[in-house]
Write a structure and sequence with these properties.
Elements (H helix, E strand, L loop, with lengths): L1 E9 L2 E6 L3 E5 L6 H13 L9 H4 L7 E8 L3 E12 L6 E12 L7 H12 L4 E4 H5 L3 H11 L9 H12 L2 H6 L1 H16 L7 H44 L2 H50 L8 H13 L7 H52 L18 H98 L9 H58 L4 H23 L5 E7 L5 E8 L5 E3 L5 H19 L5 E5 L6 H14 L5 E5 L12 E4 L8 E2 L2
Parallel strand pairs: 3-12, 3-13, 7-11, 11-12
Antiparallel strand pairs: 1-2, 1-4, 2-14, 4-5, 5-6, 8-9, 9-10
């Protein structure tokens, strides 16, 4: 059961409308009764029932840029949101408006896109609500009412198959009498049946198969009826055309022969004209080319071009003589590198040795300082303990001074000796460093001299290369000039020596060709008219032959249409489908307290296809639906729609009836009392109308949308 309808910005209304299962919406026009019905239908099907199915059509109900509709059942909730988006075409600048739909479902089962969510909605609630605008239904024709009923209960059959259809139409069209008396018509009917059955898809249901065959039959009937009329007209015209045959055929052979002769003559003349034109063009081109070559040669000969390179050769030779051999100081620098490596090794040895002497001096001086401090400390103690001054210590330090002085003298002598050795090392180190600096300067000077000599040679070689390029260019330009001049002179000589083709003036030949063309056009027109007339007669003769087939095909298609239509298979199917519906409607009427027996009539007394229904009253008289009172009509429709819902058996069985404004109190009371008895067959019953009278509604929830006391939950 649906527990509530969600609406946001739908025709100016935003609310969450609860449902109880048996709900009646009343109130004045414009308070939202139909809005709730439309929101319910849009939520289930994704579009407004009875309107267009595009998102743009649905969005016409919106009063804002975003519109939402949704439903909630005991275990499932979902909503559809329609959003308007405006953009501008980058090329034309035109404003574009689109509407996008998005879906929310709860609880989710891993649906990743709107397609999966739509499938989830169908799985949860189905898509077969029955919604009826009562006043609109009353205004429908018989055919429209039939289409409405058929759309809610499509033609299906468990007894009719494709093979049954083929057997039925074969029995109707391939009778023994036709086969015996008119074999041609019998064969035409066999051909019609074969082609018609090819239009019945192998996997299609009976409704789709019949419709395909009927569409094909209708198109073929139009075609063959037209062919039959054309053939009949041809029979009438053939006699008149026969009288004209001698006139139309006269001299056609001679005309064709003359036409062929003239065409060959025209080809010869046009070929001569073409040859003469080409020869003249060739002569004109030769004259123009000779003039152009003479002018070009004269211009080239006036240009001073020299191939003398003596000056450049002298400059190149002079520079080549100034280039010195490359400087090779590799041996000299190798000796310097070797000596520098030795000096570096000696410097390290002497430096390390000096560092060792300095370390020894530091150690000796430290020892002397330590002994001197010890003597000073014993003098301060003067018989006191070194641990604590208040403790007496009679220890005597006599003889320590002499020991310290002796050690000090020995250390100072050793320091003096080490200092002399360090000075000697410093002199040696200084000498090595001076030698190293001298060698480095000598090596750098040798490298610089080599680089300077090589750089000077490179500059001179670069100048030589530049001069050689200039020389080559002079020689190349001179050669190019000579070759070009010789080529033009050779071409001129060849043209001057080339014999000119003689050609005749083409004016006379063109006039001759024009006369031939004019005569050919006259003959073609004459021959075409004669051939056309002759062909027309042949076609009319063929039409006479085909007239019989067209007549048989037309008769066969008419018989096939009757066999498939309301007087044939369709009629049988309708009876098969409507009988169970009629029986179930009768049962629902009885539950609602009405003992009348419903009926359906699909054929008039004259055999025409109709669609009428109603019920048989207590006196045994058939009362057509249109003759019933408004209340009786409403009750009948309610019983019929409950029947259709029950037969469709969707996930949720929802009956919605809108626009019940025309029912008086008595008729409205009849409706809700009757539907109360059918409530067990449905999940939700929703009625809506501008009801202005009081009524009893036991078990129903009445929502008076005009009354503030009945306001439903509002949402932002």
């Amino acid at each position: 059961m649906i527990n509530s309808i969600e609406m946001k910005n739908v025709k100016g209304q935003t609310c969450n409308q609860p449902l109880t299962g048996m709900d009646i919406f009343v109130g004045r026009n414009g308070v939202g009764k139909t809005t709730r019905v439309q929101s319910l239908g849009t939520a289930i099907m994704g579009y407004v029932p009875g309107a267009g199915k595009r998102a743009e059509d649905t969005f016409k109900l919106s009063t804002n840029g975003v519109m939402t509709v949704g439903l909630q059942t005991d275990h499932f909730k979902f909503s559809r949101t329609f959003t308007k988006k405006e953009s501008e075409d980058s090329k034309t600048g035109a404003k574009k408006v689109t509407v996008a739909e998005s879906i929310l479902v709860s609880p989710g089962k891993g649906e990743k896109n709107d397609t999966a969510k739509k499938a989830r909605i169908l799985d949860e609630i189905g898509s077969f609500p029955v919604m009826l605008d009562f006043s609109e239904f009353l205004g429908l024709s018989d055919a429209k009412r039939r289409d409405f009923v058929y759309s809610l209960s499509p033609i299906t059959s468990s007894t009719w198959t494709r093979e049954d259809v083929e057997k039925y139409i074969a029995d109707q069209l391939l009778t023994t009498e036709i086969g015996a008396n008119n074999p041609d018509r019998y064969n035409a009917n066999k051909e019609i049946i074969s082609m018609a059955m090819a239009e019945y898809p192998q996997e299609a249901d009976i409704h789709a198969g019949l419709q395909s065959m009927l569409d094909w039959t209708s198109a073929q009937s139009s075609y063959w009826n037209s062919k039959q009329k054309d053939a009949q007209g041809a029979v009438r015209q053939i006699a008149e055309k026969k009288n004209e045959l001698e006139e139309t055929d006269r001299n056609i052979v001679q005309a064709k022969a003359e036409l062929e002769q003239l065409q060959q003559q025209l080809i010869t003349v046009e070929k001569q004209i073409s040859t003469g034109v080409e020869k003249k063009k060739s002569s004109d081109r030769r004259t123009v080319k000779i003039t152009e070559l003479q002018s070009t040669i004269k211009g080239l000969e006036e240009i001073p071009v020299s191939s003398d390179t003596a000056v450049l050769d002298a400059q190149i030779k002079e520079l080549q003589g100034q280039i010195t051999p490359p400087v090779d100081n590799e041996a000299e620098t190798a000796e310097i590198k070797k000596r520098l490596s030795q000096i570096k090794k000696q410097l390290k040895e002497k430096t390390d040795k000096r560092t060792g002497f300095n370390s020894q001096i530091t150690i000796i001086k430290t020892q002397i300082n330590t002994l001197v401090q010890a003597i000073s400390k014993t003098g301060e103690l003067a018989g006191k303990c070194t641990i604590h001054q208040q403790i007496a210590c009679p220890k005597s330090w006599d003889g320590l001074d002499a020991f310290v002085n002796r050690k000090k003298s020995e250390g100072e002598a050793k320091v003096s000796d080490l200092t002399v050795k360090i000075e000697e090392l410093n002199v040696q180190i200084k000498a090595l460093e001076t030698e190293s600096e001298t060698l480095e300067d000598k090596r750098e000077e040798a490298v610089l001299q080599a680089q300077k000599a090589n750089n000077l040679n490179a500059v001179k070689q670069s100048n030589i290369n530049t001069l050689e390029r200039e020389k080559n260019k002079v020689l190349a330009d001179a050669e190019k000039y000579t070759n070009q001049l010789n080529m033009h002179k050779t071409e001129l000589i060849n043209l001057m020596n080339e014999p000119a083709d003689a050609f005749a003036p083409v004016d006379i030949q063109e006039k001759q060709a024009e006369g031939i063309r004019s005569r050919i056009a006259e003959l073609k027109q004459s021959v075409s008219e004669k051939e056309k007339a002759k062909q027309t007669i042949l076609l009319l003769q063929q039409s006479m032959i085909e007239n019989t087939k067209a007549e048989y095909m037309s008769l066969g298609l008419k018989s096939l249409s009757q066999a498939l239509g309301p007087k044939g298979i369709q009629g049988e199917l309708v009876k098969e489908i409507l009988e169970p519906i009629r029986s179930d409607i009768g049962g629902n009427l009885q539950l609602m307290g009405f003992n009348q027996t419903p009926f359906f009539q699909t054929e008039s007394d004259t055999g025409k296809e109709i669609f009428q229904f109603g019920w048989t009253n207590e006196k045994g008289y058939r009362v057509n639906f249109d003759a019933l009172s408004t209340g009786q009509q409403t009750v009948f429709l309610a019983a019929m729609m409950v029947t259709i819902l029950d037969r469709a058996n969707p996930k949720l069985k929802i009956l919605v009836m809108d626009d019940l404004n025309h029912l008086d109190r008595h008729n409205f009371q009849m409706l809700i009392s009757g539907l109360s008895k059918l409530a067990g067959k449905l999940d939700n019953i929703i009625l809506a109308g501008a009801i202005e009278f009081t009524f009893e509604a036991d078990g129903w929830q009445v929502w008076d949308l005009s009354s503030p006391a009945s306001e439903v939950e509002q949402s932002a």
